[in-house]
Structure formats: structure tokens, C-alpha cells
């Protein structure tokens, strides 16, 4: 039986290495080369497993049943009203205070020819768990290819109609964790629209807006710092970026959603997904009060999370993508983080 502190490693022919633990399937490290062949861990987090278990439980973790926010923790399904825990006042966030990030997943080796190495993570969420209807069985594949792709594949089924939205919450810094902020990282998003936030609601309003003419425009590559250092209301509300972007051309097929790069190291990370949205979060809540890797404080904008998913509050917005899963249906979600040198 997997324990919270159990450590698992994936390694490929290029010495790229992914490390994760049993609790939350938390990705605690991804080590990749720079343009000179130097290896660095590009995932923000802690120096030890003990610190990871005691620290921020979202770092690198699998989030669910519903990642991101649901307004006032309320939704209706098949004529029944549900009230979830409001653990991110005034809203429900990432499945509640005992969400999937806090569970110990059962981890077993998994073999498939496309992967250099892989593991299967499984979890059963009982009917009524955190206020959600239906027993949900979840399988997640963590696979590493020899093309330096970290592949995350999610599958879920339910015994009753429910809502679901799973994601991975790793923060990336391509300079290397503990080596400054991501302000000079270049970001490009395949997203000409986004879902603006309301200060009153604490999350999305239901509006889908054009990014053109706003600091949220990353259609053409630009430095993250150009946005997080502005006085724009959307930016000030969350001390940076914490927004859902609408992926252009969404059709349920795998497509490029984002490209992140660092000129100094030459590292590049592309994000591919079959989901309709990607949440970009620059860690505005980091305040240097915690010690991270290399013994350095985890400072504001120390990393950027790139979470592929359905839109926030989708259960309450009819024009947002469907987040309902019914018996006999299968929820599927693929996210690929592909590392390269530019």
C-alpha cells in the first residue's frame, strides 16, 4: 500500500527525471538540461519530502474533484442543489480542504512502449465525498518519454451524475527552482480570449472577453513581467496572473496551449492539452515566508503554474464547457509538458 511519503522516480535516456510522492501524486521535481547541458530542477517546491508534506499541499499536486473555483460552493444537478465547503472564502476551491491533493494515491508501475518509464495512480472518491454526489474512480498515468515529454493522462468514471475537473498544480521556473522569479520568462498562449475575474465574486464573472488591448494578451510572445508589473485592475486583484485562458480552436483534440521559455538557460516548455482552458497562475500569494529549494525563500512570482482544465465555475455557467459526468460516461483529460532547448 502506498504511503504519503513514498517517493517515485521517472527517468529517460536523456537523464531527464521526474520525482513525485504518494500524497496528492505531488510532483516534487522535474530535472531537465539547459543549453549547456547543465541539469536543474524546474519545479518550485521544497528541499525534502518532510517539508513537502508539511508545506503547501497544492505544490505539484493532483487537484479535484473540481479544480479551480465554484462560486459560493453551490451548484445544481438534475434538480438537486449541492453545497460544497467554501475553503477559499467565499468560494469552493480545488475540491475542498480535503481534496484529491490531500489523498494518498495508490501508485503502481505502468508499462507502455511510448514511455521510457511510467506509473499509474488510482483513487476512489466515495459518494458524498466533500459534498459531491457519486462514487468516482480515478486513474492517472504519469509517463515520461524519451522526447522529454511529461505526460499526464486522467480517466474517471462515476456511479451518479456529478461534476469533475481535474488538473496538476506544478509551478515552473525554467531558470531552476530557487533561482529568482519568472518575470523575464517569455510566455505565448494559444488564447485570444480569457475569463475575467470579479473582486466581489472572487472568481470569474461568466464573461468571456478578448485579450486584445489588455495585459492578458499573450497571443504574441512577451515577458510575464510586462503583465504582472502593471496597475491593471485584473492584475492587482490577484497580485499577478491567476486567470483562465480560453484555448483557440478547442475541439477536444490534443493541441498546443502554451509555450514558456527562458532566454538565459535556453530552456523551453510547451504545454499540450485536449481541454478547453488553461489556468495561468504566477504565485502572487508567495511571500518569502517559506524556504524552498536551494535554501532560498519562495518569493512572489517564483514560478508559474500552467493548469489545463475546464473553466472555473463551469457548473453554474451554461455557456462554459460541460463539467458534468454521468454514469456510463468516461472523463478523459490529457496534458503534456514538453521540454526542449531553443
Automatic annotation (TrEMBL):
Pathway: Carbohydrate metabolism; hexose metabolism. Its cofactor is Ca(2+). Keywords: Calcium, Carbohydrate metabolism, Isomerase. It catalyses: alpha-D-glucose = beta-D-glucose. Its EC number is 5.1.3.3. It comes from the Bacteria. Belongs to the aldose epimerase family. PANTHER family: ALDOSE-1-EPIMERASE, GALACTOSE MUTAROTASE. Monomer. This is Aldose 1-epimerase.
Amino acid at each position: 500500500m502506498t504511503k504519503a511519503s513514498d517517493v517515485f522516480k521517472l527517468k529517460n535516456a536523456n537523464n531527464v527525471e521526474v520525482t513525485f510522492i504518494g500524497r496528492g501524486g505531488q510532483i516534487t521535481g522535474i530535472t531537465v538540461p539547459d543549453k549547456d547541458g547543465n541539469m536543474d530542477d524546474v519545479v518550485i517546491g521544497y528541499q525534502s519530502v518532510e517539508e513537502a508534506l508539511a508545506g503547501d499541499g497544492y505544490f505539484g499536486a493532483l487537484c479535484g474533484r473540481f479544480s479551480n473555483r465554484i462560486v459560493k460552493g453551490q451548484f445544481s444537478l438534475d434538480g438537486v442543489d449541492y453545497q460544497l465547503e467554501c475553503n477559499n472564502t467565499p468560494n469552493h476551491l480545488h475540491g475542498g480542504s480535503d481534496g484529491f491533493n490531500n489523498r494518498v494515491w495508490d501508485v503502481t508501475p505502468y508499462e507502455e512502449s511510448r514511455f521510457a518509464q511510467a506509473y499509474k495512480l488510482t483513487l476512489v472518491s466515495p459518494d458524498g465525498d466533500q459534498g459531491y454526489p457519486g462514487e468516482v474512480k480515478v486513474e492517472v498515468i504519469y509517463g515520461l518519454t524519451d522526447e522529454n515529454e511529461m505526460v499526464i493522462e486522467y480517466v474517471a468514471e462515476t456511479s451518479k451524475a456529478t461534476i469533475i475537473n481535474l488538473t496538476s498544480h506544478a509551478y515552473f521556473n525554467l531558470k531552476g527552482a530557487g533561482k529568482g522569479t519568472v518575470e523575464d520568462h517569455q510566455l505565448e498562449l494559444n488564447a485570444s480570449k480569457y475569463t475575467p475575474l470579479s473582486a466581489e465574486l472572487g472568481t470569474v464573472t461568466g464573461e468571456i472577453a478578448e485579450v486584445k488591448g489588455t495585459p492578458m494578451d499573450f497571443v504574441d510572445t512577451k515577458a510575464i513581467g510586462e503583465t504582472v508589473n502593471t496597475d491593471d485592475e485584473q492584475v492587482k486583484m490577484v497580485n499577478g496572473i491567476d486567470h483562465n485562458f480560453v484555448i483557440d480552436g478547442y475541439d477536444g483534440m490534443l493541441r498546443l496551449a502554451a509555450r514558456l521559455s527562458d532566454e538565459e538557460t535556453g530552456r523551453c516548455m510547451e504545454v499540450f492539452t485536449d481541454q478547453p482552458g488553461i489556468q495561468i497562475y504566477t504565485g502572487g500569494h508567495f511571500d518569502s515566508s517559506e524556504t524552498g529549494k536551494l535554501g532560498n525563500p519562495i518569493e512572489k512570482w517564483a514560478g508559474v503554474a500552467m493548469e489545463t482544465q475546464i473553466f472555473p465555475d463551469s457548473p453554474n455557467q451554461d455557456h462554459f464547457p460541460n463539467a458534468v459526468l454521468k454514469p456510463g460516461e468516461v472523463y478523459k483529460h490529457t496534458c503534456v509538458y514538453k521540454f526542449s532547448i531553443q
